[in-house]
Amino acid sequence: MIGAIAVVIPARDETELIGRCLESVLAAKREVAADIAVSITVVADRCTDDTADVARRYPGVTVVEIDAGNVGVARATGVMLALEGNAVLPDRVWIASTDADSAVPAGWLLEQARLARRGAGVMLGTVRPDFDDLDDEQARAWAVLHTGERALGEVHGANLGVRADVYLAVGGFPGLAEHEDVAFVDHCSALGATITASDRCEVTTSGRQIGRTPGGFARYLRDDLRNPQAMANPAL
Q1: Is residue 50 part of a domain?
Q2: Is 206 in contact with 102 (CB distance < 8 Å)?
Q3: 153-163 pLDDT, tens per residue?
Q4: Helix axes 108-117, 18-30, angle to 10 degrees
């Protein structure tokens, strides 16, 4: 049984989108049973804008500023802070990860708690881009690739959950500048953790074409959706 949920959100120069993200996470928190403590930690990493100040306007949100310039370090820092002083045993704490340019659905935390009760050690959730950020060609390509699809087990840091004892056993998020989420899940798999894919709590993430790192979702939207070969093989 899960007794606490720690939401961790790395952010870099997200003044325009961090508010939307936090409003959605707070709405998801309100859906969780009162006997489950939910913390929300934003890690503002090397921000040159007002991301941290905007995040601090939201009651109940812890904000820490670091200068790592590394999303893996940012995620790991957020988890470390969220777990510090937590009296709940690690096997009863769930860590929910999203990104500052994303918006989670109201049932986001409920679904992860449900999966945890059923024995999941890791949850891989689906994401979709904000179609207002895509052109018509990209939107059509996305629809072709994803129509009728179920959760395929793709890894997205914007929609990822893990039980704290599993997280600690694999040593946490690696300090990688990108694809830290994929490496982390690979470590969990090697450990033998129960990994569950779910499409019941899909997260909407920014459809921006220039990301905070060279690769990742932004590159996929910018390049692969326009590539006929990628149309035949939609793996990210």
Answers
A1: yes
A2: yes
A3: 899 999 999 99
A4: 50
